Amino acid sequence: MKRRWSLWLTLTMLLVFMLQITVSAAGQSVTISHCMITGQEVTVIASGAVAPSDTGLYYLFELKPYEVGVGARVDFCASAPAAEMVQFTTPLDFNKATSKLYSRFVVTAYQGGVFVPVSNEMYITNPEAVATKATGYPVRSKKGLTADWRYASDLGELGAGYASYELDVSRFFVGGGVNYTYNGKTYSFNSTVVTEYDIVCKKFADQGCNVVMVIKNSYNPATLDLILPAAREPGKNCYALNVSEQAGSEKIAALLSFLANRYSGSGKGTIHTWIIGNEINNNSPWHYAGPMDGEAFAVQYAKEFRHCYNAIKSQNSGARVMLNIDQRWTHTDSNPYAYAGRQVLDSFANYINETGNIDWGLSIHPHPVPLYNCQFWNLPPAYAAMKLVTHADNSKMVNPTNMDVVTNHMTQPFLLSPSGTVRHILISEMGFTSSNAQIPTDQNIQAAAMVYAYKLTSSNPFIEGVIIHRQIDHASEVINDGMAVGIRTDAGVPKVSYNAFKYMDTANTSISDSLLPYLGATSWADLGVN
Hints:
The protein has helices spanning 2-26, 152-158, 191-206, 246-262, 283-286, 294-313, 341-355, 381-385, 404-409, 443-458, 475-481, 496-503, 510-514, and strands at residues 30-38, 41-48, 57-63, 78-81, 85-91, 104-111, 114-117, 122-123, 143-146, 162-168, 177-182, 185-190, 210-216, 273-276, 320-325, 361-364, 425-430, 463-468. The chain is α/β, with parallel strands linked by helices. The protein has an eight-stranded parallel β-barrel, surrounded by four helices. Strands 3, 4, 6, 7 and 8 form a five-stranded antiparallel beta sheet that branches. The protein has a three-stranded antiparallel beta sheet with strand order 1-2-5, with no helix packed on it. The termini are far apart.
């Protein structure tokens, strides 16, 4: 009897699989065009040629982030008569064990005893509808710094509009002390780490800055469930977030929901901008998701991004959420898992459009080429010969001289925001070294390069902020990369670039003008900037 049951189950599953392949191969007959929160419910609207259904009905299924398909499930969440246009409603169950906030939805028809998908899959596109907070966005200045909390008072004195910092999600799950109940489960986050970010966020926000938080994930044997399963090997800088398994995806949603709620003007500071991952087009080592091609990586990252987006926006509707790429626009090298930024950006956007467009933004790192070339306007001969930096859409690299390549690209219809406007674009890292063994430089050249780059990029109307990397020299960058990019030395001593930063966007032009000789110019007009 047990053998017969096993054989029947195997045949049934095979039939389900074959039916779904047949429908997929024939093409979807129904298109979901609307998947939004309305009050306490989710409304899904679909249209198209009527697919055959043995019952004359369509059935709506929700798929959790970690579920790959309907399979043999029978627990549909809504039904409606099959028609050329059909509308479903189902409870959102926000902040309950049965929450559908992170789910995607698919229309099925009942055919031959199984539920067969007949539509695309779509996620909720307005998670902000349930948010109880809506923070503003400081606009004091376009200039900002990769900040050091020890020198937070600099930020106000320097007139910085942005303060960028990093947050490692794995640290919150080692230890406990701060309890948070979310979707029916109680989590305990490391109280020391929470207190640390209470201090950091408040210090930066109190200085009047737009606080930019870069979300990263480190390797820790105690928190492997936060890392995508295919990427659980040590030795990488950062790791992809695990939204393909239930435990990991639920933990990530809970933590980001907690953080977005806590740092939304509640007296503990505000995180205004969230960047999900660092230089994600460099899969290995900066956002390791395991061996895969660029297209597969972009789809995987889009799932992570949306998961984080929904957690953040459902708490603070005013928050901005961005992806981040480095300066390799179409360039690839011997690293098979370092993809062209444009490729990842476009593939990410296409997948988001197919599964429900949301208001994502773009952050980018247009560092000098090569990184240690402080005189970015003058490429070394070997690099110049390769024609790496141009003003064409297929430019291999972007640096401060050709950010128009990126902003022009972002005006294409498939890359526009849901409201039809160009998306929020932020330069979240751009650094210039004051010393280097390969290309001689000094503090004066560093200051001149910083001011020139800021003038070039901030004059672009689509670039909302320009974050100079960084406030103070970082030992690892000095040792590993020969890069001393701070406007303070590692001992905290202000460099020439400190005052240059302070005045580079003010009416006091004396310091900026004094740097012109290091650029080989007598006026900023000679360089095509104001």
